[in-house]
Each structure stands twice: as structure tokens, then as C-alpha cells.
Design goal:
24 strands; about 15% strand; 7-stranded parallel beta sheet; single chain; about 750 residues
């Protein structure tokens, strides 16, 4: 089998180096997926490795499915026997088998973020805490961060540093909520997404025999997108590979952009310290983009200090320069971008799907949407409400979850009185209290309702329990589709939706029918050996946003830069290239934060295959106010040789004070920095150790101040603009700045 001949020398080296620790540093567009695919095929076909002994971990089910399909094309059906999937799906499978070792039943429920937030909301209410202080999303994020760093609730509430952080954040009860949250999950036989990894670590830590079993099974371990792993994921893979040491990690430190999810770039930067005999292969040839785009991306990432050195290059055509668009406002930016897409489509016979608009935050999509609609250009926003998050889908899914696991508290609360069956909030509360007081599951209370409730409510709850028991009996002898169809009909959900003749009601009814179609498709697929309802629910629970996004119509794709990672488009617009927006105002407190923002810019640029546009607006509505904007410092870091200013679009495209035109090489119009560029030529300021914003109500002219980004300066003038006070400040290293005092963080020095 001559699959090696299609590889370049470094790619072939990565494929053929099969034994011992290996790190493949794969630059953007370097054929990483192809290398991973062929490497697994090579292990099986040429080295004789049993596919059951190969573990390959990815970050999306879509990536795993694509790789498995490609390997199958190379070596046949044996490819299906490899353990290949996301971290969460792979270790959920192991936890199903080993659940009893950590006190769980094998049919545990997997909570998504909405289930978790609902549970947290309940706990906050029960503890009579302020739900504006303890917002479910904030609490869940804090708990998730702790779990990703393997901090249990016991460690959390006993760590004085953690407690000090919570006290400083005015959230002293966070530890109590974490404790109750975990206790309630356990009682509901449920795990959230982070628990799948946390509990795998606990399983391997506390049960050496279980760890040894999987160490012997997985003789070859491969991890894709290694730069995105957190501590929990890193320790699992390290433990599994400890015996055979045949660990291969693939990644690009320049594309590490998920620190906010717990990803730790040090995992890839320091990998060699863990494996002194590590073999390193660099894939540096870019097959995706033009020379202009590759050189531009290189000039961006070169500014980062913390990185693994590599020289990305391409044999592709030189291509067009990167176009810089300046707009008077965010609305005009949208109009110019839409016009540019319209023009490119007509001039070059392109489709809508050849274009992507990338932005730093979701809120930027509004102006783009309005402009595209006005020009009748079809678009899709990635990251909107997914199919499985719609109310009617979650309702039926809650029924199915409750049938599989009657201890599931969140599913119970969703289905007990839907459709309405005369069981009010008071009765539900009595059921919950009875379960807590007698330390039994909710299902035990429901199954014996006459012992805890009286009158009509007791009868209704008994009818409900009889219905659920009948579904459980069906589940034991029927496949997922037959059970789900029965639940949809017998529960009254289909009738309830069918009787709603509004457009919304019709859509909801069709959505439920579509869910049943999906379950039928799952049951009919020869790839799914287990046709049970429990197996289907696990697959759905582990879907990622990328996997749910299966529309394939001819549309312009709009998404955040974070969501674009791994994708490619012929033409890419990176919009909103302004200070405090990109780089984000929240990511300028340290060099590490700023370097992550720069890596995000690098990821955005390297999505483009043929043409890259960068745009910024001079004014933008933020926080309900129209603010003046400053072009992003990142624009000054782009090699001006490859930039040109777009003069054709918009009457207000003249270059502002930040940039001056000049003739570049090859006839390009480039950009030259002026002699002084406030905010970029100076070093990033590191705030003083005792930095704490002062009350600026009494700020006056002549006072010396410190700003977390601009450093030290002196107030020249203070003005009122409507209800807002503005300060004109001259900073020692960053020049003159005008700051709104209601937003500026200033420490008064004297």
C-alpha cells in the first residue's frame, strides 16, 4: 500500500516514527489530519498493531468521524476497531463500564450546561442567596474552572487562597454551592461535562487495577490539538501512556486560544520536560493559503515571546495583498463588508459559502447581519441556538432521560407537570423535600406518592409513575426509536404541540418529528451496534457545537474567531480590528493575555485561503454609548509589505492619522507607521502590585494617575459631556488619551 508516497519528508517522518514519545508541531494548513490518519493506518497495516490497542483523542466528534472514515478508505473495516473520539465521549464510555468503582450506576445521566445552570439556580434559591450575585453562568464557570484544575469541592472549601478569592469577588458562598451542586448531581446519578474528566482522573488515581487495564489496552496514545488540553486531560493521557510511552501529541502552540476554557499552553511548551527522549517533527509547509497570507500570519505571531520556533512557508501562489478597510462607524463597516462580498462574488464567480466574517465577540454580528440582509446575501450565524437546545426538544429529551435514569432531578422537574397533569409547584416541592428529608431518590417518592401526598396530586403523581414504569418496561425490550415514539405519544407531548396551530406551534411539532427522525436514523445505522435508548442519549449528550452544525447550504458564514478554529474559507473578513475590542479590553492585564489575543488574530488570518480582509470602525456603539475607536495595535504589527488600503469601497475610506500610505514592493499599496503610534510602540505596562482603581469622583487637573494599560500620566483637563465626565490625560509612554471616567480604571498616585 503506497500511502506514504503522497507525504512530504517531515510528514513521512511523523508517520514512520511510531515508538516512543513524539511531538508533531503542525503549523496552520500543514496537512495535520492527513498525517494523523495515515499514521494510524501505518500502525495497523505496516506495524501489525491491533486497532483495539490504539487510542486517538480529538476535540470534536466530527473530527474523529472524519478521521475514522479516511482510515477506513485506506485499510478497510478494521479502522472501526480503533478507540477514536473526543476526550468526553471516550472517557464517558470507560466510566459507563467502571462506574460502580466510584459509586455511580452505569446508566448515569450527562448534564449539559443548561441542566447544570437550572440546578444551580435551584440551589441559589434554596439557600436564599442573591441570584444577581450568584448568577448560574458565573457559578458554573467557577466550578468548571476548579474541576479542570482537579480541585474537588472538599479541597475548594478548605483552601484559604480560594476562599480569599471568593471573598474578594463578593461571592463567599461559592464553595457551599459547589458542595451542594456535587451532592445533588451524585444523588441524581448525574455527571456534568467536566465530571467526565474529573471522575476519570479519580478512577485512575484510586483504582490501580483499572488504570493498569487501560494502560495495557492502549499501547499507542495519540492526542490531537494538544495545545488545547487542560490539566485534567493532560494527566489522563500521561497516566495512560506511562507504561508503553508510545504517546504522540499533535498541535500548534500558535493556535492555543482556549485559556478561558482551562486550556494550558504550558502543556505543549513544556512537553519535552516530561519526556527527555522526545522526538520532535515540525510540519512547516502550508498547503492552504497564499504567500501573502502566510507571510502576514508569520509577521503577526513573530511578536509573541512564548512560542515554539518554526518557519511556516508555502509553495502556493503569491496571491493578492491583505486589504485594510476603514469605516466611519460599525454600521458603515457592515455595509462595506457586504458590498465587498457582493463585488467579489460577481467579479470572480464565487458562492456565498466562499466567504466568512469573523469577529471577536458575538455582539458584533448585528451590523453585519443587517447589511447582508439589505443586499439579499444569505448568511448563517454559527453559535446560535442549536437544535438540541430548543425547548420542545429538551422537553422530550428530559422524558427519555428520566426513563433511562429515574433519579435525574433536572429531568424530573421538567417533565412532572408537562403536559399539565394537575401537579403544581407546591406538590413538586413536597416531593423534593421528602426525598431530602428521608435521604431517598425522587423516584422512590414518586413511586410511593400516597405516602407523601394527598388528594388529587397524589393520584396524578401515581398515574405519572405508572406511565414512566411502562416506558421502562418498553425500554428493556425495544430499540431507542420505538421507545421514543411511545414516549412522545403517551406522554401527550405530540398531542399538545399538534393542537397549537400557530406558526411557532407547527415549528415545534416539526422539530419533535425531526428528533424522532434522528433517533430512527441512529437505530438504522449499521455503525451503531447498541440501538438502546441509553446509548442514543449518550451520543447526543456528547455532541459539540461543531457537530450540531450540519447545515450545508450556500451561505456566508458568520462566527467568532474562537469558533472558526480548524475551518478554512477562500475569503475571510476579520472585522472590528480596534483597541479594547481586539485585543479585548479584558485581555490586556498581562503579557500572557495579550499573547493569547495575538494567537487569536493569527488563527483568524490563517483561516483564509485566497483573500484576507481586515476592517475597523472609527466609532462603535458599546455599553449603550457611541464611542470613538482606535485602530488595533495588531494592525501595526502586520508587515506593511503585504497590506493595501481599500479605496474603492465607501466615500470615507481615507487613511486616518494612524496610518500613512506608501508604495510597497510589487506595486502594492502598503502602510507605514507614523513616527509616534500611541499604544503600540511603547511596552505593555504592568500594573503596580498595589494597583486598585480609585474613586475618580474628585479627580482634578494636575493629578498624577496610573492606568492598568497606559501606565503613569498626568491629568491635563476634565470636561463634562452630557452626563459623562471625560479626562484628558498625557501618559508618559503612550501619549495623550481621552478617557470616560465612568469606565476608566485609574489609580490616583497623589
Amino acid at each position: 500500500m503506497d500511502y506514504l508516497s503522497s507525504l512530504n519528508p517531515p510528514q513521512r517522518e511523523a508517520v514512520e516514527h511510531t515508538d516512543g514519545p513524539l511531538m508533531i508541531i503542525a503549523g496552520a494548513g500543514s496537512g495535520k489530519t492527513r498525517v494523523l490518519t495515515i499514521r494510524i493506518a501505518h500502525l495497523i497495516h505496516s506495524k501489525g498493531i491491533d486497532p483495539f490497542n490504539i487510542l486517538s483523542l480529538t476535540f470534536t466528534n466530527k473530527a474523529a468521524s472524519e478521521m475514522k472514515h479516511r482510515i477506513e478508505q485506506l485499510i478497510g473495516l478494521e479502522a472501526r476497531n480503533t478507540w477514536m473520539g473526543t476526550f468526553h465521549s471516550t472517557f464517558a464510555k470507560i466510566l459507563r463500564v467502571e462506574a460502580s468503582r466510584i459509586g455511580y450506576p452505569s446508566n448515569f445521566t450527562i448534564y449539559d450546561s443548561e441542566d447544570s445552570k437550572s440546578l444551580i439556580r435551584t440551589i441559589v434559591k434554596e439557600k436564599r442567596l442573591d441570584d444577581k450575585v450568584y448568577k448560574p453562568s458565573t457559578v458554573l464557570s467557577r466550578i468548571s474552572g476548579a474541576k479542570n484544575r482537579l480541585i474537588s469541592w472538599q479541597t475548594y472549601i478548605n483552601d484559604p487562597h480560594v476562599q480569599a478569592d471568593d471573598d474578594a469577588a463578593m461571592k463567599p458562598k461559592m464553595g457551599e454551592i459547589y458542595k451542594t451542586y456535587q451532592e445533588r448531581l451524585f444523588k441524581s446519578s448525574a455527571m456534568d461535562f467536566d465530571d467526565l474528566l474529573f471522575n476519570t482522573n479519580v478512577l485512575f488515581r484510586d483504582h490501580a487495577d483499572v488504570l493498569n487495564k487501560y494502560q495495557q489496552r492502549f499501547k499507542y496514545v495519540m492526542v490531537d490539538e494538544f495545545q488545547d488540553t487542560n490539566l485534567s486531560q493532560y494527566l489522563i493521557t500521561k497516566r495512560l501512556a506511562a507504561v508503553h510511552q508510545n504517546i504522540c501529541v499533535v498541535g500548534d502552540d500558535a493556535q492555543s486560544i482556549y485559556a478561558f476554557r482551562g486550556a494550558n499552553i504550558q502543556n505543549i511548551l513544556n512537553f519535552e520536560k516530561d519526556y527527555p527522549d522526545l522526538f520532535v517533527v515540525k510540519l512547516e509547509q502550508n498547503y492552504r493559503s497564499t504567500k501573502s497570507i502566510v507571510h502576514t500570519a508569520n509577521s503577526i505571531i513573530a511578536k509573541n515571546k512564548a512560542q515554539l520556533k518554526k518557519n511556516i512557508w508555502t509553495d502556493n501562489v503569491h496571491g493578492e495583498p491583505i486589504e485594510l478597510i476603514k469605516a466611519a462607524s460599525d454600521n458603515e463597516e457592515g455595509r462595506i463588508v457586504a458590498s465587498a462580498i457582493f463585488e467579489q462574488k460577481n467579479n470572480h464567480q464565487l458562492k456565498n459559502s466562499d466567504f466568512a466574517i469573523l469577529y471577536r465577540t458575538n455582539s458584533q454580528s448585528r451590523a453585519m447581519e443587517e447589511a447582508l440582509r439589505k443586499m439579499n446575501i444569505n448568511y448563517r450565524i454559527v453559535g446560535g441556538l442549536s437544535f438540541y437546545q430548543r425547548r420542545e426538544i429538551k422537553d422530550l429529551m428530559a422524558y427519555l432521560r428520566f426513563v433511562v435514569n429515574p433519579a435525574d432531578e433536572e429531568a424530573f422537574k421538567r417533565v412532572i407537570n408537562y403536559p399539565k397533569r394537575g401537579i403544581g409547584d407546591t406538590s413538586v416541592e413536597k416531593i423534593m423535600i421528602a426525598a431530602y428529608e428521608h435521604d431517598i431518590s425522587i423516584w422512590e417518592v414518586v413511586s410511593n406518592s400516597s405516602s407523601f401526598l394527598t388528594g388529587r396530586a397524589a393520584a396524578s403523581v401515581e398515574d405519572f409513575s405508572i406511565m414512566i414504569k411502562s416506558f421502562v418496561i418498553e425500554m428493556e425490550r425495544k430499540d431507542a426509536y420505538e421507545v421514543a415514539s411511545s414516549v412522545a405519544k403517551q406522554s401527550g407531548i405530540l398531542r399538545e404541540l399538534y393542537e397549537d396551530k400557530t406558526i411557532e406551534g407547527l415549528n415545534r411539532y416539526e422539530n419533535v418529528q425531526e428528533l424522532l427522525n434522528a433517533i430512527k436514523n441512529y437505530v438504522d445505522s449499521p455503525e451503531n451496534e447498541d440501538k438502546s435508548l441509553g446509548s442514543f442519549l449518550q451520543e447526543i449528550a456528547l455532541l459539540t457545537d461543531e457537530d450540531q452544525n450540519k447545515q450545508d447550504t450556500d451561505v456566508v458564514t458568520m462566527m467568532t474567531i474562537h469558533a472558526s478554529k480548524g475551518l478554512e474559507f477562500k475569503n475571510v473578513f476579520v472585522v472590528g480590528m480596534e483597541e479594547d475590542l481586539f485585543p479585548s479590553q479584558m485581555m490586556m492585564q498581562s503579557r500572557e493575555d495579550l499573547e493569547e489575543e495575538r494567537r487569536l488574530f493569527y488563527v483568524a488570518a490563517t483561516r483564509a485561503m485566497e483573500k484576507l480582509f481586515l476592517s475597523y470602525a472609527m466609532t462603535r456603539y458599546r455599553y449603550g454609548r457611541l464611542l470613538n475607536c482606535e485602530p488595533s495595535r495588531f494592525l501595526d504589527e502586520v508587515d506593511p509589505t503585504y497590506l493595501k488600503v481599500n479605496k474603492k469601497l465607501g466615500s470615507q475610506m481615507s487613511i486616518g492619522s494612524s496610518f500613512q500610505e506608501r508604495e510597497g514592493t510589487n506595486g502594492f499599496v502598503g502602510l507605514r507607521k507614523p513616527a509616534v503610534r500611541a499604544g503600540t510602540t511603547a511596552k505593555v505596562h504592568t500594573p503596580s502590585p498595589d494597583f486598585k482603581p480609585s474613586n475618580t469622583h474628585n479627580l482634578t487637573e494636575g493629578m498624577k494617575v496610573e492606568h492598568p494599560k497606559f501606565g503613569f500620566g498626568q491629568v491635563h483637563k476634565i470636561e463634562m459631556e452630557g452626563a459623562n465626565r471625560k479626562a484628558f490625560i498625557h501618559f508618559d509612554n503612550f501619549g495623550d488619551k481621552t478617557l470616560l471616567l465612568s469606565f476608566a480604571k485609574l489609580r490616583i498616585v497623589d
